[in-house]
Amino acid sequence: MYSYGAYAQNEWPLDPMPSQHQILGTIGEYRNTNRFHRGIDMLNKNESDLNVYAIYGGKVFHNGITEAANAILTIGAILYVHVKLDPRLTNGMTVSQGELIGTMIEETGWSTHLHLQNADYNFLNHHLDPFKDNEPPKIHSVDFRKNGCDLNTNTPQFSTQIPINGENHTLIFNKVDIIADIHGPGVNSDGSARTKNKLVPYSISYEINNYLNNSVDGAPVKNFEFEEYPADNLNASKVFGKGTSQSSPFYYILTSHPSTAPVDRYWNTGLRIGITDTWPDNITLDARSNDEAQYPDGAYSLHIEAKDIKFDADPPLVTQKTERVLVDNFRPYVRK
What is the Cα–Cα distance from 101 to 94, expressed in whole angstroms? Predict the structure, then answer.
């Protein structure tokens, strides 16, 4: 058994507790109120069974709201959302692990479900045990646009294709936003795909390789990793591209960062060699000629990777996609 701080592998809050149940949503997905989803949405594999059980013992508190969206039951740091308090209990009573604490409130227009949440804790990664996800995430599309994209704004797309050695390369220059539609299906109780729902991968990264297939920067860029909930909801409008919706697609702006300022980042294809970009959105870090450039004009491959959760001895399910680009920032000029 692995331990993560005060938490270890724990059974599910649905009956039977030692069994997997359906996953409808997870941390990091877009929600229509321009925010990140903050917890794990689940439903009993027997969908008529709406009972909810405590995964940890402690004192019970309920906010008294009976409307599904805002009904919250709390035990310690754990939130059980969309739940009605069991009539045997009152606020302040102590319950034991595994004890019945309430029932899911049936919803209209959306699947009745339990939302399980801790402020900084991804329950799927820290093991609701057992859990299997047999379907890898999918990278549905990759788009290159001029920097400045966000949830409400599309900038001009780089769409010119240049064939090199029989393969098309997207012509790009200056400051570029990399946007990808990435998600996988929900998960049934047996680990198979629940196509009715869409889940974000646990992590998304990209790596820029030169024509020799060597990493230019030495390591992938890992801005998106949902080990925990992104710190600021306001960032959601800066890291999701236009056209994103709650039911998918999820257009992630891979060059932005959901948790660390500056949020609005980009790939500066004209960056000066030896300089670490701080994304000031001006020309102070730009090369003046091709021989000063970290990404000299030429062909590159962009490797995008999406990973699901890793469980114990099971390796993570991984999906990769390669996009080929041609960087073209500089024209020949006379030095002196």
Answer: 10
Instruction: Give dist(CA 148, CA 176) in Å, integer.
Output: 9
Residues 6+ apart with CB under 8 A from 145: 154, 155, 156, 157, 158, 176, 177, 179
CA dist 224 and 27 (Å) reads: 11
Nearest-angstrom CA–CA distance, 117 and 27? 9
Which burial class, exposed, middle or buried, applies to 210 when counting CB atoms under 10 A from its CB (0-12, 13-18, 19+)? Answer: middle
pLDDT in tens, 209-247: 998 899 999 999 999 998 887 766 668 899 999 999 988
Predicted TM-score (pTM) of the model is 0.90
**Residue position matching structure tokens 């060699």:** 273
Placement of tokens 């820029």 in the chain: 208
Q: Residue type at 236?
A: A
How many C-beta atoms lie closer than 10 Å to residue 223's C-beta? 21
In this structure, what DSSP letter does residue 153 have? B
Residue whose token pair is 């450039």: 293
